Amino acid sequence: AKIRHYKWEVRYEYKSPDCFKKLVITINGRTPGPTVLAQQGDTVVVELKNSLLTENVAIHWHGIRQIGSPWSDGTEGVTQCPIVPGDTFKYEFVVDRPGTYLYHAHYGMQREAGLYGSIRVALPEGKSEPFFYDYDRSIILNDWYHKSTYEQAVGLSLPSSNFVWVGEPQSLLIQGKGRFDCATPSLEPGVCNATSPECSPYAVTVVPGKTYRLRISSLTALSALSFQIEGHNMTVVEADGHYVEPFVLKNLFIYSGETYSVLIEANQDPSRNYWMTTNVVSRNATKSAPPGVAFLNYYPNHPQRSPPTVLPAGPAWNDDKARLNQSLAIKAHRDFIHTPPQLPDRVMVFLNTQNQIDGRKRWSVNNVSYTLPHTPYLIALKQNLTNAFDQTPPPDGYDFVNYDIYKVQNNTNATSSDGIYRLQFNITVDIILQNANTMQLNDSETHPWHLHGHDFWVLGYGKGKFDMYNDPKKYNLVNPIMKNTVPVHKFGWTALRFRADNPGVWAFHCHIESHFYMGMGVVFAEGIDMVGNLPSSIMGCGETKGVVHRP
Ligand code: C2O
Ligand code: CU
């Protein structure tokens, strides 16, 4: 195994990813940032210099479990203090599994300012994947806003009467490139340049006859997406770093925080290029950004030559059934099944709701809206700083019997808390994520939930209210896929299972940036006594200021 050393500098720069010029956060001058390339078993070291001048930073390695290095998870408030301007912080962790992963900012709503990228972990020399391909490409999908993250965050925090929702994105980006319509009235002169090379569509060049592995991931702030390639089928072979029993799709639904590998064959008429598009689903796409566009470029055609066809339409945004069906179709590859423990030791049901708390709009789990503490839990728990956060754990369930998930509820008992769930080490935990009506009539949203520090088995999805007695009988305990991010469909439930076998403190939250910011998350702690000595570099904030590091 090797050590992969990276030196990154994070700064603000003017960029025009969708032709509209705004301040974005770059790594070494780029957004998306550099791809981390490693082999299974390697140690990745990233020395991160914060040159944002007036803003803190922290980077999370999404999908990497951080076994033995929980302080490198990069979750501000949970595993570390923020990295202040001028400081350099060293992340160091082992990539123990092959697959496709991500990294992104985990401080405030900073991710959507452009601080993100891919991690690609290859198999060790001499080992091969259970599928064949000639070449490998990474594509990150994103939605893009022109407002700064501060304007957005402030709007979300205002009292309900003045609440400003972030709204729909201005454009969709494919590998950092999108197209905003510069003819939009009321733009200041000079901010939008339709001919800027920065916003020319991303092109994936293919050689006719070859097979390509496209590693497609989503880091949207809000949108659920569909991705498709004109005239080409996609065979799904990997999801969140786990091999999938292959199946073929025309369009791939993908939620923020998910990664997939699909295989495509360059087997169409090679005299032209083809559209690759992404469009918004689940939310009303007619009110959202137009499709994001890229080119599948057949060599030797010019990479920027437009396909001769009209832009193909994506699937209907409101076809919820098609999305549920895709979720149900994803199973573990037959030769790579990790059989889950057959019974849980602890079962938690997490009701997802929108609430009104202290005059503010919030999202909650079992009527508790999550707030980040000033002292990171990892340090507080290790050093026994019991004043650092609410010692009362949030509830394991809600009022299943009486709660009507199809009604607008008052949830008058909702509160805010930075309390956490303590899990007995090594137990098997079941989580049932229960979706419900928002504060608007006949409205429920799709939420992609992401777990740090673990992969979980996806045991099932269902519509309506989870039935504690009958639904567990329908769990897939034979070949469930393991993932780290999973959608909870509208008015539906998703059941997952994991082993609390990774000493540390781990966030579990909706990957929609504004939802997590508004409280849609929880935190698990397990095996704290087994956590090694904390590096002093993660300390310095909240109650950890005076703590002396004892080796
Ligand atoms: Cu990719 Cu806590 O998130
Ligand atoms: Cu959400």
From TrEMBL:
Broadest EC class assigned to this enzyme: oxidoreductase
Keywords, sorted A to Z: Copper, Disulfide bond, Glycoprotein, Metal-binding, Oxidoreductase, Repeat, Secreted, Signal
Plastocyanin-like domain mapped to chain residues: 10-122, 138-299, 406-527
Compartments where found: Secreted
Catalytic activity line of the entry: 4 L-ascorbate + O2 = 4 monodehydro-L-ascorbate radical + 2 H2O
Gene Ontology CC terms: extracellular region
Cofactor(s) recorded in Swiss-Prot or TrEMBL: Cu cation
Family matches, as Gene3D superfamilies: Cupredoxins - blue copper proteins
EC assignment: 1.10.3.3
Pfam family, one: Cu-oxidase_3
Keyword Chaperone: no
GO MF entry, a single one: L-ascorbate oxidase activity
Keyword Metal-binding applies: yes
Domain of life: Eukaryota
InterPro entries found in the cross-reference section: Cu-oxidase-like_N, Cu-oxidase_2nd, Cu-oxidase_C, Cu-oxidase_fam, Cu_oxidase_CS, Cu_oxidase_Cu_BS, Cupredoxin, CuRO_3_AAO
Subunit structure of this chain's protein: Dimer.
Similarity annotation: Belongs to the multicopper oxidase family.
Stated name of the protein: L-ascorbate oxidase
Source organism: Rubus argutus (Southern blackberry)
